[in-house]
């Protein structure tokens, strides 16, 4: 990937890189030299550029992650261009392979799709969705693109969810502001604790039913199991949540049948 700029003012190259949020660690290196050119001439970060100079910067190419075995599976693609891929992840589908799960993950399917279209690169998730949950997943096609889009100068991503809760909330709008940490008894479980990391879950009720509540949730902090833990703490766990909802039954996928309105 080559980035090409037209300099608008004199500057040291290292300052130009900083101003444009281009870290040195992502720039390709050949024969111990960064691939930074002014015109056709290689330059160092200590060199300067003049107004009107054409600066070319080569970003490192990415190799395929051979640990992820491509598996052909239909993908629901919502949007795609040269920079990103947006897909709808089905429920009960893991995002990534692990020591215990090597197949039938979203990563396996995306790897097969990349292979099909002849794209060479790695999978860089912008957001993660729990295995049991369906939802939109943004995949950057290069780590540099992800880096750029997550700088403070860029518009931050806002994560929104919808869930059916087991119980009826008193409030129509609220924010759960409670710290969460890993359980000392079981590390895969999270719990509310004063020793945990700060996190906030904002919610707005869409519809109340006789024994359930349909809510829209915004979550800026994005801690593991945050939403599930927060609502379970107030005795309104998510329907189908086999970890934090003691009334959940295997086979439920978090979409309660709530036809009777309050």
Structure notes:
This protein has helices spanning about 15-20, 105-115, 145-150, 225-235; strands at about 1-5, 10, 30, 35, 35-40, 40, 50, 55-60, 75-80, 85-90, 125, 135-140, 160-165, 175, 180, 190, 200-210, 210-220. It is of the alpha+beta class and about 260 residues long. The strands form 6 sheets. The chain has a 4-stranded antiparallel β-sheet, with no helix packed on it. A 4-stranded antiparallel β-sheet has the order 9-10-12-11. Strands 13-18-17-14 form a 4-stranded antiparallel β-sheet, with helices on one face.
Short description:
With 262 residues, the chain is of the alpha+beta class. The protein is built from 4 helices and 18 strands.
Secondary structure layout plus pairing:
Elements: E1 2-6, E2 11-12, H1 13-19, E3 29-30, E4 33-34, E5 36-38, E6 41-42, E7 48-49, E8 54-58, E9 77-80, E10 84-89, H2 106-117, E11 124-125, E12 135-140, H3 143-149, E13 160-166, E14 173-177, E15 180-182, E16 190-192, E17 200-208, E18 212-218, H4 226-233
Antiparallel strand pairs: 1-8, 2-7, 3-4, 5-6, 5-8, 9-10, 10-12, 11-12, 13-18, 14-17, 15-16, 17-18
